[in-house]
Amino acid sequence: MKTPLTSEHPSVPTTLPHTNDTDWLEQLHDILSIPVTEEIQKYFHAENDLFSFFYTPFLQFTYQSMSDYFMTFKTDMALIERQSLLQSTLTAVHHRLFHLTHRTLISEMHIDKLTVGLNGSTPHERYMDFNHKFNKTSKSKNLFNIYPILGKIVVNETLRTINFVKKIIQYYMKDYLLLSDFFKEKDLRLTNLQLGVGDTHVNGQCVTILTFASGQKVVYKPRSLSIDKQFGEFIEWVNSKGFQPSLRIPIAIDRQTYGWYEFIPHQEATSEDEIERYYSRIGGYLAIAYLFGATDLHLDNLIACGEHPMLIDLETLFTNDLDCYDSAFPFPALARELTQSVFGTLMLPITIASGKLLDIDLSAVGGGKGVQSEKIKTWVIVNQKTDEMKLVEQPYVTESSQNKPTVNGKEANIGNYIPHVTDGFRKMYRLFLNEIDELMDHNGPIFAFESCQIRHVFRATHVYAKFLEASTHPDYLQEPTRRNKLFESFWNITSLMAPFKKIVPHEIAELENHDIPYFVLTCGGTIVKDGYGRDIADLFQSSCIERVTHRLQQLGSEDEARQIRYIKSSLATLTNGDWTPSHEKTPMSPASADREDGYFLREAQAIGDDILAQLIWEDDRHAAYLIGVSVGMNEAVTVSPLTPGIYDGTLGIVLFFDQLAQQTGETHYRHAADALLEGMFKQLKPELMPSSAYFGLGSLFYGLMVLGLQRSDSHIIQKAYEYLKHLEECVQHEETPDFVSGLSGVLYMLTKIYQLTNEPRVFEVAKTTASRLSVLLDSKQPDTVLTGLSHGAAGFALALLTYGTAANDEQLLKQGHSYLVYERNRFNKQENNWVDLRKGNAYQTFWCHGAPGIGISRLLLAQFYDDELLHEELNAALNKTISDGFGHNHSLCHGDFGNLDLLLLYAQYTNNPEPKELARKLAISSIDQAHTYGWKLGLNHSDQLQGMMLGVTGIGYQLLRHINPTVPSILALELPSSTLTEKELRIHDR
Which parts of the sequence bind Zn(2+) (predicted)? Predict the structure, then answer.
């Protein structure tokens, strides 16, 4: 890879205009030569802080520099408390230097321990021996001779932190009268500076909190606050137009290149009414952020102050767009939707399944404390103050945040306030529609932002921070070329996004100065400036204001409905996997009369048409996508582009649309199925998928086989076979035996496909799966096995007995039968049901847990397995389902339409029409109920579930099964009949 300074890459000066690249050497010599005075010990506890003697010269220099600075004060000295500010500055310098140097110091301690040795009889004594070596200047000089880049960074960081503190104090003195008016009092003696509130930019500048003798606080921001001032006027305009509850934002004093900002504390709400108003305001702000194209409104930028959500950082209130979607993404329409919808604001939770960097919610509304990431790692020093000290990597856990409203010491459950959020959004959205002429006017409230400065974030800040942290590793501090190569990886993006060829040199220059890169432009302009004022032209084709006016023209009822649907879907993920229905079980009786097939078909079409309206299409309409709620195998609820699987992903909807096309003859449903399939393949990463027949690679194989069979399309069959190798590799490492989440469902599905196709390769993978499943089950403690189909003994027995019979494997037949016996011992005759061992003697009537699912397993086994008790158990399950299985929600997994499938399957396999007739009448009652109350889906607080097992797709699919029983049961992993020949059903290319 070429360096940024070769002719192949545009470059900017890496030495900044205000610096001399060798000044630091002389300055370092001077710092190390300063005698350390006893006075410094008052501010720095040498024995208590890690590697304290290394930092002492730099803190002595800081102390002397600030003391000399304060000596220049005369009449202004009464405005500050010198001793406290000295302590603040020393703390800031120490904190920053420790962050830069601790990796190298730990490394050097271990090198000394192995080479020259450390004195002491205990680990602590040997550490102290190393620490005391820095009392001699020669030790530090030797260190910086080895790591000259570290020397330069440490000197520069010390100097710029001191200069930054002086600048804040200078501005405070200059603006003292302004601040006095702001606080309506005179006792504003400055007592403390809290640096490091946020990232550092432009020579180490950062947001800083000033504390006064009165206890009052104010926030210093090292940027223009013109955007904040103008937003205040916009909020006044919104309030004047009648938005309720009225909004309030922090007071800002703009001083052009810097500004003072009202300090907002987290405060409790005092009543339920205040919480309701809080979330109504959240909805209003979300509509504003959507209109403006705001980004980066994450949890640290929102503070819950009583009934007011307070946005405390507006530098990304407007944003522009490089519009590189076609070159940067294989799915540009989806990427554009994610960034240009309400999700782009980052106020709402959104998960990108293929994301490599973030797996936790950092949104303003949803993010909170104590959430552990599996992808983000942090380094922690263990064995401190010993010669065994080291850095260990640990999962990142979110820290305390202030973005959640509380009442009586408890966080409000946003699931109870989703209607308030959507109502606030809707009111603000319609206010914009009603006032569109004034908003579009060049003298109106939008164009008033034209000259305001905003920040443009080209890459997520945590990406820059990750590289800066890596650059402090000793390997990158010995010679410039190593550190340069680290930052050269920023060029990789240019192959996909050409505009970055102009951006990357500026990013690297600021990173080399150990700053987070910072870029600004005006709302009405297109020229970007970097953190040091250098222009970057021709990046944007239009201004932010032009983008907002374009969006204003796109507002309407269809867009409003789409954004509200996204809001509801997103907020449903904050219910912490609450499967408990928010409604009581509704007594339900069969309808008094049957209805024609067209009644069921019209309802299925209505569901299909609603999903069609949600599709995100590529321009050529060859690919389409959906954003919706997904429930992972660990029951974590997310909103994201739909995953591939059948449970709640794309394939389930594809199968529904394909059947809908066959039943109606409407080709647009087939087109939608094909487009969704193409969109799924564009996003597909089989190497990251689990094995599951409902969520994972098994689902992919099964879904494509079903589609190919019902279309009699051998090309789709061959496409399905492409994933067998991935599935075979995956099952060998699978740790979950379950029917829905793991190996049991995969084994059953593979066995049924083998029995249909006689494809030897399928049998090989089934054999591998059976072996792995048997080992997993043998390792389980007997009393830990659950009952039921999806996660328990019924699923294990069904899979093992089906495969064992096909393979004539006596050992697996014996193992499978043992799970039948185990589950029979958990049957309660009085309850006429099997105990649900999850919840202590509870009795469920769902497909996933309880009689309906167990009944399906017994029905399927009865087709080939000779066991006299199967029919008795089947009848018990059927009777229990009929008596107690309806009036829940309408989902397949744990609702009425899933329970109806037992009746349909029973009628199908026994040629008994009565259960089917009963099922149709119960389905009619469910439809009538839905006409009044809406569909009750499988996750509390969510009416936006599209998927097969929890959402409306499953309902629509089951309605088609009531019309045509040859539509394969997803709950039984059935396969459709096909006209394909045996040759067409087998793998073509071996």
Answer: 848, 893-894
Helix H or strand E encompassing 511: helix 500-512
Does residue 812 contact residue 803 with C-beta atoms inside 8 Å?
Answer: yes
Count of alpha carbons within 13 Å of 17, Cβ hemisphere only?
6
Sign of CA dihedral 455, 456, 458, 462: positive
- Measured over all CA atoms, what is the biggest interatomic distance in the chain, rounded to whole angstroms? 102
Contact 843, 834 (CB under 8 A): yes
Handedness of CA 442, 448, 452, 454 (dihedral sign): negative
pLDDT of 580 reads 52
Distance, in Å, from the CA atom of 346 to the CA atom of 340, rounded to the nearest integer, reads 11
User: What is the per-residue pLDDT for 577?
Assistant: 52
Q: What pLDDT, on the 0 to 100 scale, is given for residue 588?
A: 81
pLDDT at 181: 87
Rounded to whole angstroms, how far apart are CA atoms 423 and 279? 9
Token digits of residue 665: 């003859």
Residue list, annotated binding site? 848, 893-894
Supply φ then ψ for residue 986, to 5 degrees.
-100, 165
In 3D, which of 139, 165, 149, 145 has the Cα closest to residue 62? Answer: 165
Q: What pLDDT score does 250 carry?
A: 96
> CA angle, 552 as apex, 549 and 558 as ends, to 5°?
155
DSSP state of 187: -
Structure token pair of residue 168? 């804040």
- C-alpha distances (whole Å) from 179 to each of 218, 222, 313 are 9, 16, 20
Please tell me what DSSP assigns to residue 636: -
Annotate 187-204 with b (16+ C-beta within 10 A) or e (fewer): ebebbbbbbbebbbbbbb
Using 70 as the pLDDT threshold, list the residues of the chain that sit under it: 1-21, 42-48, 75-76, 186, 197-198, 352-358, 400, 575-584, 632-635, 841, 940-942, 990
| Contact in structure between 720 and 665 (CB atoms under 8 Å) | no
Q: Find where tokens 């420790």 sit.
A: 98
Q: Are strands 406-407 and 302-305 parallel, antiparallel or unpaired?
A: unpaired
pLDDT at position 173 is 93
Sequence ranges of the binding site for Zn(2+): 848, 893-894
Q: Would you state the structure tokens that stand for residue 369, as one six-digit string? A: 């404390």
Yes or no: say if 892 and 970 are a contact pair by the CB < 8 Å rule. Answer: yes
Contact 773, 747 (CB under 8 A): yes
Q: Contact at 8 Å (CB) between 633 and 736?
A: yes
Query: Are the beta carbons of 904 and 898 closer than 8 angstroms?
Result: no
Q: Scanning the structure block, which residue is given the tokens 């309850």? A: 831
| Cβ–Cβ < 8 Å for 126, 120 | yes
Query: What is the model's pLDDT at position 23?
Result: 83
- What pLDDT shows up at residue 48? 66
* Cα separation, 473 vs 426, whole angstroms: 50
Record the tokens describing residue 252, joined without a space.
């800002």
The DSSP bridge partners found for residue 828 are 833
Q: Is 699 helix (H, G, I), strand (E, B) or coil?
A: helix
For residue 154, the number of C-alpha atoms closer than 13 Å in the C-beta half-sphere is: 33
For residue 614, give both structure tokens: 């949600």
On whether the CB atoms of residues 753 and 975 are closer than 8 A, the answer is yes
Peptide bond into 245 cis (omega under 30): yes
Give the start-to-end residue ranges of the domains of the chain.
Answer: 23-187, 226-252+264-367+403-457+543-576
pLDDT of residue 638: 81
Write down the pLDDT at residue 593: 82
Residue tagged 């029973």 (tokens): 906
Q: What is the pLDDT of residue 629?
A: 86
pLDDT digits (tens, 9 = 90+) for 138-159: 999 999 999 999 999 999 999 9
